[in-house]
Amino acid sequence: SPPASPFPHPPAGLCGISAIATTKQRSYFYTSANTSPPPPPLSENAKGFLSTLEQSSEEELTLHLQDRMQFSKEAIACLVCVFDRLHSHISDMCKVVQAAGFEDDSQSDIINLNCTLLDENTRLRDLATLLQGRHHKMSMEYNELVDKVTSSETKVTEMETTVEDLQWDIEKLRNREQKLNKHLAEAMEQVLLCNTFLYFESLNAELEHNQELANSRMAELEKLQVELQEAVRESEKLKMDLRNIPEEVVKETLEYKCLQSQFSLLYNESLGVKTQLDEARALLLTAKNAHLRQIEHMESDELSLQKKLRTEVIQLEDTLAQVRKEYEMLRIEFEQNLAANEQAGPINREMRHLISSLQNHNLQLKGDVQRYKRKLRETQLEINKLRCQSGDTGVLILEETTSDSIDVKKEEDEDQEEEEERRRELERQRAREREREREREAERERERERERERQRSDELKRKDSDTLKMLRVELKKAQESQKEMKLLLDMYKSAPKEQRDKVQLMAAERKSKAEVDELRMRVRELEERERKESKKLADEDALRKIRVAEETIEHLQKKLAATKQEEEALLSEMDVTGQAFEDMQEQNSRLLQQLREKDDANFKLMSERIKSNQIYKLLKEEKEELADQVLAFKTQVDAQLLVVQKLEEKEGVLQSTLAALEKELAVRTQALELNKRKAVEAAQLAEDLKVQLEHTQAKLKEIQVSVAENRTARERESSNLKRAQEDLSRLRRKLEKQKKVEMYSDADEILQEEINQYKAKLRCPCCNTRDKETVLTKCFHVFCYECLKMRYDTRQRKCPKCNCAFGANDFHRIYIT
């Protein structure tokens, strides 16, 4: 906590100030001792300095003098320090000499004499300093007295000039009064000659006026007397207060409080700065230690991570080299397979064209067979109709027709099964062709991609991920199509041809058995009908019909023989075509077997390729994972580097803040030293100001005396001036009355003129025709109502005399009686 007063003990700097004062006194002493010769003439620098002083203002002068005073104080302080050093050096030398003298007993008298001389020298020096101080004090008092004399002389000259001016004004007023008195005497003589009544009235008016003047002067005198008594009391009170100023008043002054508050603030600030400095140093030490630890930890982590990365990168490079070798091997195998497939491609195309042409020829043959079968069915139907029309031979015909129909149905079923097998084979061929076309398209796309990869090797490095994604999508599509085709092939392969033929034969047998059963049922029904009809048809008509039926049967048998011959011819042709068809089927089966073998080889190659692609994908994924890990490690390293940079930046910031705090501490210490110096200077200034205050109090007393004298003189002059003005106004009234008497011989005319003047005063000053009847409540000037109303309506809402603004509620009527 700071002390109660700013200067509880005399500071150490006061010793230096006393030394400065002693040196000043010595310098004054030496200057006073050397003032006997006449002063030398002023140099050009001194003249220039005096001219600048004359041209500069008071503030500039004070600032300049303060700077010079500060410089002189510093110079004198340096001189005092040098002098003290010399004095201490001399005293040390004396002590050394004394010590050396004590060793020699022969020089004891000389040493004693030297000590006495030194004591005498110090006494004389103290006396010289005391005399110098007295001389300095006397010179200061003399200068102050000289300043007072000059100021009093200037004031006396100013007062003399004012007195002369006032005397001149008084003489002027007296001369004017004499002239007015002469005019008044003349006017009085004329008035006496004119009329006694007017003279009596004028005397009464003068008497009243004089009474008013006397009363006013009496009041002024009483007022002045009261003011004089109050001023005397206040002056005595102020004198008493100035003589004994209490310490409490001094402590309550603003200067004392300001100094005390500044001292306490500076003391508190110095304590706060010290605590902040200690805290900052502790923080800096902790931050440095933590930073060093963190840097060591990060370096160790970085070394371990670098080792891990190196090992992992070496492993990845080894795996990548292996993968590249495997990829090259697979690529070479794939190119060889592609070349073999390209060589076998035209042969396969020719075979497909042959198979398609043979299939078309077979289809044509099948169409012919079906057409012949249709004709045969039509003929059989006609035969059946004829047989149905016949009577006895119906059963035989039905049996033959049933056998024929069964044969025809069997042949139709076989034809349908063959057509279904052909359709299935066609569908298989088409599916295989589609698969091959897809594979070719995929191979073409891969070849294009390879060409693009070869052309854009630099771009592939950047766009590996995109190409891999595209390849994955295409591979997925190819795998899906391959799975579908495999399912179809498995379904076709799972059911062999013999089983399919057996199934078809079993189905045909079932159908034929069902048809035979139906035909037997029909034969039985027909036999029953024939029996019934044989019983009924026992007459001749039946015989005729039988004959006709027999004739028709013979005719039909002939036709049947012809049709049988045609059927045999057709069957022979069908046998030939069937054998050719079987040969073609055998050839097709051989070709299909070859195609299947090639497809199996292609499938094997495709499976191997898929496996290689899968291995390649796995290796790619491992490579990507390793690349991601490398990137992650890189990001970790970058993050750690960023952390290190941030910590370094923090360290720099802390160092800068520490430097700033150190600078601030240095500035604060300098400010504290400056404030101490200022406090010492303020104490010295306070002493100087006390001396100046005493001088100013003395000056103030003299000025108060002169002011009182001037005030009394001015009051006298003002009273004389007032009296002269009153006399002048009184004489003017007399003069006006005398002029009226001279102008108007009759008293009635005079009174009439006065009445006219009073009436003119009651008229409106704007129009001079109407009487005053409205007053403005803001400025209380009176006008006629019409003029004010017209100004209000025309928006000239200001008083004609004083230009004061008014509104609708600011003027009212008055009635003068």
UniProtKB/TrEMBL annotation:
Its EC number(s): 2.3.2.27
Top EC class of this enzyme: transferase
Pathway per the UniProt entry: Protein modification; protein ubiquitination
One record GO biological process: chromatin organization
Main location: nucleus
Compartmental location: Nucleus
Keywords per UniProt: Acetylation, Chromatin regulator, Coiled coil, Isopeptide bond, Metal-binding, Nucleus, Phosphoprotein, Transferase, Ubl conjugation, Ubl conjugation pathway, Zinc, Zinc-finger
Coiled-coil region list: 156-241
Chain segments carrying region Disordered: 397-463
GO MF entries: ubiquitin protein ligase activity; zinc ion binding
InterPro entries (UniProt xref): BRE1-like_CC, BRE1A/B-like_dom, E3_ubiquit_lig_Bre1, Znf_C3HC4_RING-type, Znf_RING, Znf_RING/FYVE/PHD, Znf_RING_CS
Record domain RING-type: where: 764-803
Biased composition (Basic and acidic residues): 421-463
GO cellular component: HULC complex; nucleus
SUPFAM superfamilies: RING/U-box (SSF57850)
Keyword hit for Transport: no
Domain of life per record: Eukaryota
Reactions this protein catalyses: S-ubiquitinyl-[E2 ubiquitin-conjugating enzyme]-L-cysteine + [acceptor protein]-L-lysine = [E2 ubiquitin-conjugating enzyme]-L-cysteine + N(6)-ubiquitinyl-[acceptor protein]-L-lysine
Family: Belongs to the BRE1 family.
Function: Component of the RNF20/40 E3 ubiquitin-protein ligase complex that mediates monoubiquitination of 'Lys-120' of histone H2B (H2BK120ub1). H2BK120ub1 gives a specific tag for epigenetic transcriptional activation and is also prerequisite for histone H3 'Lys-4' and 'Lys-79' methylation (H3K4me and H3K79me, respectively). It thereby plays a central role in histone code and gene regulation. The RNF20/40 complex forms a H2B ubiquitin ligase complex in cooperation with the E2 enzyme UBE2A or UBE2B; reports about the cooperation with UBE2E1/UBCH are contradictory.
Protein's recorded name: E3 ubiquitin protein ligase
Lineage: Eukaryota, Metazoa, Chordata, Craniata, Vertebrata
